[in-house]
């Protein structure tokens, strides 16, 4: 648990859960542990942000496996689709604070019974990147839907395994394809300009990612679920 986590838990105990339509609960800002390139309050490159929306989403499946092992909450119930309840930074100077993974954790994961896992999930789901507004309200909303609709597919993958099975690769490839299809739909509606160029570059970066790479990036989190 990060040093700031105790204060976060104390705050949650006072204010309780944020409702979907209410202001999101603010958490401490922290670096994305998957990269040393950016402080969490800096504006990040759109291609970096959109790539992380895929790779970090797959890591969510490994986190769900680890949490399920420790708490006995079924893997497909740890996280659910829906609006984020937490946010670590806010928009500024015209930029938006865009969630990297936009889903919810289930209410059975509680701060009282599962404090460490609760805080880890909260911090993971609160993580945002500062990006241009169009990257959050355009392609970003399309990715929000993909993540919400497919979060439970990740429960079929054993992230403790040495390598992905053929079925695992198919699940990962199918999720990647949904990202690519969203890029295609958005790009087709855009004329020449910065947004289109950024999305073409981002699509190319995601297209080069293999299922094996996605699995390997998530696997170290899945190993936490081993006895």
Automatic annotation (TrEMBL):
Keywords: Signal. Residues 1-22 form the signal peptide. It comes from the Eukaryota. This is Uncharacterized protein.
